[in-house]
């Protein structure tokens, strides 16, 4: 963090979970052994609190989607953010790490936001391979349609690579998990935090150099690991997108035990 960059705050807020997954579902190749090891998975939204405005990273999914996909849903992502005093109607910026169903489902809760997306992500999900089973199972048609509508309404901020959103908050194109996967680095009082989203579902991915099982580009996932280590002040400040351990490594926000933690 330089003198010109304010120290932002970063929070993780849990809104749902999937208790029934296994290591074989979540880790690629030999890293999946033992394949039948049970691995619960948490669903989060992320809050970056800057001196001027709140920035939200990802938008989770709705209760209806949770029922359709047999996931546990405790609250709407927007309701989870409200626990930290966020008025989603006034949030100006939402970063969408990628377009899988569990990251873009509660968009209508942000009527005045602009959504930061990578051009490659939109191009892929409106392109020739998105309909193939292995890809299509990870998205919902209505989510992609909604994003196209937002684009036509001028509400998408397209990024081609890296961009600083405000001093000390940057998005970085990494690919790997999806064609336009992006991560977020944030200057905080504790150092530079990296929100990995699905570039690393679990600590065991990025810290163990063990890619997640779902990807469009395996070398891209390794590139993402390298970049996250380069950007973060320490490995402890690389925050995976779905690991239940996140809620145990950082202090809880008062009154939200088991739901929200302050990362920095």
Mean model confidence by pLDDT: 95
Basic shape: globular
User: Runs with pLDDT <50, length 5+?
Assistant: none
Gyration radius (Cα, Å) is 17 Å
- Secondary-structure element series: EHEEHEHEEHHHEEEEEHHEHE
Q: What can be said about the biggest beta sheet?
A: 8 strands, mixed
Structural class: alpha/beta
Give a nutshell description of this structure.
The protein has 264 residues and is α/β, with parallel strands linked by helices.
Structure explained in plain terms:
- This protein has 264 residues and is α/β, with parallel strands linked by helices.
- The chain has helices at 23-26, 63-69, 77-82, 119-125, 133-136, 141-152, 203-206, 218-231, 246-249; strands spanning 9-18, 41-49, 54-57, 72-73, 93-95, 114-118, 156-159, 163-166, 169-173, 182-188, 191-197, 238-240, 260-262.
- Helices cover 23% and strands 25% of the residues.
- The strands form two sheets. Strands 1, 2, 3, 4, 5, 6, 7 and 13 form an eight-stranded mixed beta sheet that branches. Strands 8-9-10-11-12 form a five-stranded mixed beta sheet.
């Amino acid at each position: 963090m330089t003198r010109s960059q304010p120290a932002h705050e970063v929070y993780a807020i849990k809104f749902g979970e999937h208790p029934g997954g296994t290591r074989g579902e979540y880790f690629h190749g030999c890293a999946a052994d033992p394949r039948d090891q049970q691995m619960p998975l948490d669903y989060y939204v992320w809050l970056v609190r800057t001196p001027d405005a709140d920035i939200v990273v990802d938008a989770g999914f709705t209760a209806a989607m949770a029922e359709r996909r047999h996931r546990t849903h405790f609250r709407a992502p927007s309701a989870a953010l409200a626990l930290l005093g966020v008025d989603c109607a006034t949030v100006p910026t939402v970063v969408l790490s990628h377009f899988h169903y569990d990251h873009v489902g509660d968009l209508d809760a942000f009527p005045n936001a602009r959504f930061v997306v990578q051009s490659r992500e939109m191009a892929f999900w409106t392109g020739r391979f998105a309909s193939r089973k292995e890809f299509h199972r990870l998205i919902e048609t209505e989510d992609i349609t909604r994003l196209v509508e937002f684009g036509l309404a001028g509400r998408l901020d397209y990024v081609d690579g890296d961009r600083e959103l405000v001093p000390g908050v940057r998005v970085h194109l990494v690919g790997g998990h999806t064609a336009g996967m992006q991560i977020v680095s944030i200057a905080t009082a504790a150092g530079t935090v990296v929100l990995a989203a699905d570039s690393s579902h679990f600590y065991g991915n990025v810290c163990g150099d063990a890619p997640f099982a779902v990807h469009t580009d395996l070398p891209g996932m390794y590139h993402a690991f390298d970049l996250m280590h380069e950007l973060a002040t320490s490995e402890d400040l690389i925050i995976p997108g779905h690991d239940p351990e996140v809620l145990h490594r950082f202090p809880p926000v008062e009154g939200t035990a088991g739901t929200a933690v302050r990362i920095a």
